[in-house]
Specification:
The protein has 104 residues and is α+β, with helices and mostly antiparallel strands. The protein has one domain. Strands 1, 2, 3, 4, 5 and 6 form a 6-stranded antiparallel β-sheet that branches. The longest helix is centred in the C-terminal third of the chain and has 13 residues.
Length: 104
């Protein structure tokens, strides 16, 4: 049995989520830098998800991507993050990764 508490994005595959009203937040996270192996605290955008790819879910989606977090924060501010389904598709790898985001 796999415990899936977090939404996992797969490269080049669209994931569609529905986000719980008012759940967008910034959380501090302690991570280990993959290159320097030094622990540091970073901020992550996080939100509670109640549906993933059309299936009811009780998960958390979080991202360290500043660009994706900014897009989701704007949607939080204007309410579209909660009114619509959110499609997120990661394209590329490592530092060239971009996120295609759509609301419908």
């Amino acid at each position: 049995m796999t415990l899936a508490n977090y939404v996992k994005l797969v490269p080049n595959i669209e994931t569609v989520i529905r986000v719980k009203e008012g759940s967008f937040r910034i959380e501090p996270r302690e991570i280990t830098d993959p290159k320097t192996k030094i622990k540091k605290v970073v901020n992550a955008a996080a939100m509670d998800v109640y549906e993933e790819n059309g299936v009811p879910a009780k998960k958390v989606f979080s991202t360290l991507s500043e660009k994706l977090a900014t897009t989701l924060k704007i949607a939080h501010d204007n309410g579209s993050l909660y009114r619509y389904r959110v499609s997120i598709k990661p394209v590329g790898a490592d530092f060239t990764r971009e996120y295609q985001v759509a609301f419908f």
